[in-house]
Amino acid sequence: MTICVIPARSGSKRLKNKNIKFFNGKPIISYAIKIAKASKLFSRIIVSTDCKKIKRIAEKYGAEVPFLRSKKLSNDYTITADVIIDAIKKISSEHYRYHFCIYPTTTLISKLDLLRSFRKMKKQKSDLLLAISEFNKNPLRALQIVQKNNIKFWNKKFANFRTQDLPKFYEDSGSFYIYNTKALFKNKGKLTKNSTFYLLSKKKSLDIDNIFDFKIAEYLYKIKKKTNG
Are 121 and 199 in contact (CB under 8 A)? Predict the structure, then answer.
């Protein structure tokens, strides 16, 4: 068994109340809690928040909120690793070998994704596992605006390459991480040579930043629910 931490601060600027906004009839954070509970991996599911309203909602759906996060760790510049480290210290769980971080807007993954990624993390004895997905468009053929009204290739070297001939690139899916606890405290969540990944399909990966992302996620969730019966 291990510990799951869900970081859910208030004050999202791009999408107001993002972490508790109603998603197909329920606060979106409830889905992350449900997935964590369904995996049966965790002895505790902790929500780290600075907001009493989020605390009440998280507890209603079965998570623990044993403390309110400080304002110092709840601004736009706070990194996730610092929030997880703070939670570990607050609940005195340093003796656990691993800690998961699941983001509160994670709705499209399944318990199997958590189980398989954890199996990989332990097998490879990694410092950190990131859930990643492939870029929709290859960044090597990115364009830049110059002199206000003109464009150029960011890198001319790749201007005449076909997309299928370029190496693949991946991005953080914004879904979940798994940390080796000792490595987390040592490296502050940074990638090391001993970091690994769990590859999510695009239909399971959507980092919600705005209302358009939110609506797409709702649509994908409905499809997922129908497919899974």
Answer: no
